[in-house]
Every structure is written in C-alpha cells, then in structure tokens.
Amino acid sequence: METIDYILSHPVSVSRFGDGEFYVMWDMNGGPFQKANPKLSKRLWEIFTSSDNDHIVCIPYTFYDFSWCIPQTSQFGREFMVTYSNQLDNTIDKYRIYYDALFTRFYFDHVDKSDCAKIANMIQQLWKDKNLLIVEGESTRFGVGNNLLDEAKSVKRILCPSVNAFDVYDKILAKVKSCASKDDLILCALGMTATVLAYDLSQLGFRAVDIGHFDIEYEWFKMGATSKCSVPHKAVNEAGYQSVNDNLLDKVYGSSIITKIV
C-alpha cells in the first residue's frame, strides 16, 4: 500500500523487476516469453541502477518479508534468495529505497485477502478520469470483460507480440511516441519489455507504469480463484496459456486498438 500511495501522490513512472528480469541481468535464460540477449541485459542494468526523481524501481517485497504470502510463494522466494544470494548481494543496493514490484499482485499470493478490494480500488484511482494508452501483448486484453477501466476518460491500445516483444522494441517505442500525448497515462503490460519501456518513456516526458499481471489478479479476485486458472479470452501464462487464438467480438475493445506491431 505504501508503494501504491506513492504512485498515486507522485507523478512517477514505474519499472518492476522480478525473477525474470534478474535472470536476464545475470546473463541467464530469459524464460519462455522473452529470450535473453546482451542488449536487454544492458538496458535492465541501466534502469535498475538509474536515479531519476520521475521514475521508480520496484523489486519483490519477498526480498524483505515472507510473512504475508502463501507457502508456495514463500518457498519460491526463499529458494530464489538462497540460490542467487551472491548475485543479489552484488545487485541490490542496501542503501537505496526500492518500491514493491508486487503491488500488482494484490490477491493470489496473499494469506490475508481482507484488503484486496481496497487495494484494487486504490490502483484503479491511478487512471480515473485519465486518457489511457495501453501497450500490451496481443492476447493480454487488459481490462476487457471487467470493470477495471470504467472510470478512465478514454482507452486506446497498441498491441505487441506476446513472445519476444523486445526483439521489436525500437518499433514499439517509436509507435508509442507517435501515438501518445503528454497527458496520457501509459500502462505497459508486456513482460520485461514493459520494464524498459516505462523508463524510456519517462525520459521522454511521458508517464508510464509497468502494470504487469494486475488485470489477471483482478480476474482471479473477482472469481475467488484458489488456483492460478485460465481466464476466458485472455492469455494466462502462469496457467500454461501462452496465447489466445479466438476472435473476441467486443466492439469496445476492437475500437480501442489503434495499431498492432508484429
């Protein structure tokens, strides 16, 4: 909540770092949705060590405390910190303030779910009465089929490859620059590419937030999910669904798409 409060009260852009970003920074495999490459590793290091009043860097709160999360999440976090303790010691600046990358993970991993509705509502205030530009994977469909975006002033979308989006990063950045207005709030739901994009857009005078899995968490919250299950018409990588091959007949969604990058 401290991270969300800060984002609501300061006009900052947000880059989030999780295990995948750290793997790439450490020249390891990127994962099934983004292959590692030296350019991406270099950019992630640049952003992680950046110091800019208009941009914040977020890391998992599990680096600090496990008491809030379910056993599966706690176990993964502990194993990660033990396995990569040397790398983390050489990466994390103990004298720097980081924010919580898991602010978008407000439901599933929490033992105490009593504040979930409050947290979801807080995050939604970020785009209340704002013009939104969503940069997302072609099967992400952020806010489609639920009420997450109901209070946004307007919504437009740029669809990007769901896999290896960073391979066409220059095209993505150029298209966002040409389509965005300085008063737009840009939501990036595009894996590691979103981490880089939020920073670069901040440097260009835009406000961009790496919003991650917030939409899927919201879907799970609304259905009271007890497992990481599929969501109709949306890709849910953690449930083994990498892409969605249906033609979603949603006129509002369709009209919001301004371009698709391949």
Structural description of this entry:
The protein has ten helices and eight strands. With 262 residues, it is an alpha/beta fold. The strands form two sheets. It has a five-stranded parallel β-sheet with strand order 7-6-4-5-8. Helix 8 links the parallel strand 6 (184-189) and strand 7. Helix 2 (19-25) packs across helix 3 (38-48). The longest helix is centred in the first third of the chain and has 13 residues, at 71-83.
Number of helices: 10
The shape is globular
Largest sheet: 5 strands, parallel
Mean pLDDT comes to 94
Percent range for β-strand residues: 5-15%
Strand order of the largest sheet: 7-6-4-5-8
- Residue stretches low in confidence (pLDDT < 50, at least 5 long) are none
Pattern of helices and strands:
HEHHEHHEHEEHEHEHHE
Alpha-carbon distance between the two ends: 37 Å
Radius of gyration: 17 Å
Question: Number of DSSP strands?
Answer: 8
Structural class: alpha/beta
Helix fraction, binned, reads 25-40%
